[in-house]
Write a structure and sequence with these properties.
Blueprint: E1 2-4, H1 7-14, E2 22-27, H2 33-46, E3 51-56, H3 66-70, H4 76-85, E4 90-92, H5 96-99, H6 117-121, H7 125-140, E5 144-148, H8 152-164, E6 170-174, H9 194-199, H10 201-215, H11 220-232, E7 237-246, E8 263-271, E9 274-282
Parallel strand pairs: 1-4, 2-3, 2-5, 3-4, 5-6
Antiparallel strand pairs: 7-8, 8-9
Helix pairs in contact: 7-8, 10-11
The structure holds adenosine monophosphate.
Length: about 280
């Protein structure tokens, strides 16, 4: 595995992969079993001949909350080892200075899918994601890129970016990797206290219960009320949002709608000062 920091080193490391399949996995580091699944998928897609490129970049532009950025976990050496173990060819870990000119003035903004869910709660977040992913696409020029469905809205927005900006790149979505208790694995889980960690699986359990009730004919209004009640019963939590949207357009479903599919029941919940997101698709 080659480790590169600058764009120039990255270009040099990619010369010999010209014409071959090149699969990009963008991450923010603190890699875990969810990321490992993405890296394995990337290796499969690339085959023996192709190249897997992993980027680790804690993108300041997508953080709407300074303390979330400051406390975001970082484990550079463990991350590099995991990449190596999963068959990565090139690991790109640029600095913020390398990525951004101080007077940068371009934006890449999606204007429909980003209006609900996390997009409504985290101003500028998805514009920051689109900007950094567009830059990585331009730098790496991958044939394919792999993202987690855990960040469902992010993946939908990036698919729209690829379609609307004509990137010749195939995106692949990997199902959410969970702990055996159902908790979606996330770098931010590290910041939970031991007690919060035992409570956090309750979020997925609440969403599953709501999804089952909706599938059985309950209305959107009743489903949201049910999930909110279940989450509120978890000590020390504060709901950021619980929403039901159409899984394709991400537009909210009307309160009295029943059994409209595909639907997405999604939530963001604070456990103390750690914000966790999760969702269930109802197909
Ligand atoms: P992050 O480092 O949080 O920006 O995540 C990098 C990529 O890994 C994104 O495409 C995420 O959706 C994906 N990812 C993070 N956690 C998981 C998980 N538990 N299961 C599947 N994919 C994940």
């Amino acid at each position: 595995m080659r480790r590169v920091i600058t764009k120039r080193e990255l270009r040099a490391a990619l010369v010999s992969s010209k014409g071959k399949r090149r699969v990009l996995v963008p991450t923010m580091g603190a890699l875990h079993a969810g990321h490992a699944e993405l890296l394995r998928r990337a290796r499969d897609l690339a085959g023996e001949d192709g190249y897997v490129v992993v980027s680790i970049f804690l993108n300041p532009v997508q953080f709407d909350n300074a303390s979330d950025l400051d406390t975001y976990p970082q484990h550079r050496e463990d991350d590099a080892q995991l990449c190596e173990d999963c068959g990565t060819d090139v690991l790109f870990t640029p600095t913020a200075q390398e990525m951004y000119c101080p007077d940068r003035s371009m934006v890449v903004e999606e204007t429909q899918l980003s209006q609900t869910l996390c997009g409504a709660k985290r101003p500028g977040h998805f514009a920051g994601v689109c900007l950094v992913v567009a830059k990585l696409f331009n730098m790496v020029q991958p044939t394919d890129a792999v993202f987690g469905k855990k960040d469902f809205q992010q993946l939908a927005i990036l698919r729209r970016m690829v379609r609307d900006l004509d990137y010749p790149i195939t995106l692949h979505g990997v199902p959410t990797v969970r702990e055996s208790n159902g908790l979606a694995i996330s770098s931010r889980n590290e910041r939970l206290s031991p007690e919060q960690r035992t409570l956090a699986p309750g979020l997925y359990a609440a969403l599953q219960q709501g999804a089952a009730s909706y599938a059985a004919g309950q209305s959107v209004r009743e489903t949201l009320a049910e999930v909110e009640k279940l989450v509120q019963a978890i000590p020390g939590t504060r709901i950021d949002y619980v929403e039901m949207v159409h899984a394709g357009t991400l537009q909210p479903l009307g309160a009295e709608v029943r059994q409209e599919k595909p639907a997405l029941l999604a939530a963001a919940v604070w456990f103390g000062d750690v914000r966790l997101i999760d969702h269930v698709e109802i197909l």
